[in-house]
Write a structure and sequence with these properties.
This protein is an alpha+beta fold. It has a domain of 110 residues: Jelly Rolls, CATH 2.60.120. Strands 1-8-3-6 form a four-stranded antiparallel beta sheet. Strands 2-7-4-5 form a four-stranded antiparallel beta sheet. It starts with a helix and ends with a helix.
Length: 191
């Protein structure tokens, strides 16, 4: 059952026979995490690419002052990883933490390479996903440069209502790049 959602996600991007879909799916191993548990911590090497089956994760950095800066959230039917650490096998600058009890399917770097070799069309799948992620990052960067903090807040809660309802104001503020206090003012003045 846990691989069903992954298979549906793959089908949205490429066409595979049922046999090949099962082959791809079998490369992904399930992992359950409890609320606040880390899937990745800064300084370690990201050895996986993950697909969220259930729950929600926060991908963030800690700066020298201890401030949390959230890059993105990953909820059910989303992918997560540190692409830099995963591709280059270098120490990660990111933390990936479960915000609630969560389930993920993970594929190792070694298994991903093996899958590319045994089923080359899978490279197309990950290319398409990378392109979609790049588009998303570009749109976010444009919003961060052209929207006010208030506009960014309302865009976030309107675009991701299921995710925003699971988050604290501090986590949302960290994602928006504003202080918790400033977010409180935005919310207060919007009532």
């Amino acid at each position: 059952m846990s691989h069903y959602l992954l298979e549906q996600n793959i089908k949205k991007n490429i066409h595979l026979s049922n046999e090949d879909l099962t082959t791809v799916s079998n490369y992904f191993k399930p992992l359950d995490l409890k609320r606040k548990e880390f899937l990745l911590t800064q300084g370690s090497i990201c050895k996986f690419e993950g697909f969220v089956v259930d729950g929600c994760f926060r991908v963030f950095t800690l700066d020298k002052k201890g401030n949390e800066n959230t890059l993105y959230f990953a909820a059910k039917d989303w992918w997560l990883m540190d692409i830099d650490s995963f591709m280059n096998q270098t120490a990660s600058n990111l933390n990936i933490q479960a915000l609630e009890d969560s389930k993920v399917l993970l594929i190792s770097r070694k298994d991903k390479v093996s899958l590319y070799e045994s089923l080359p069309i899978v490279e197309k799948l990950f290319r398409i996903m990378s392109q979609k992620a790049l588009v998303s990052w570009q749109r976010r960067l444009i919003r961060n440069h052209s929207f006010t903090a208030k506009e960014r807040y309302f865009h976030f809660i309107e675009t991701y209502p299921d995710i925003s309802s699971k988050l604290t104001d501090k986590q949302i503020a960290g994602y928006l790049g504003i202080s918790h206090e400033f977010l409180s003012k935005i919310k207060k003045n919007s009532k």
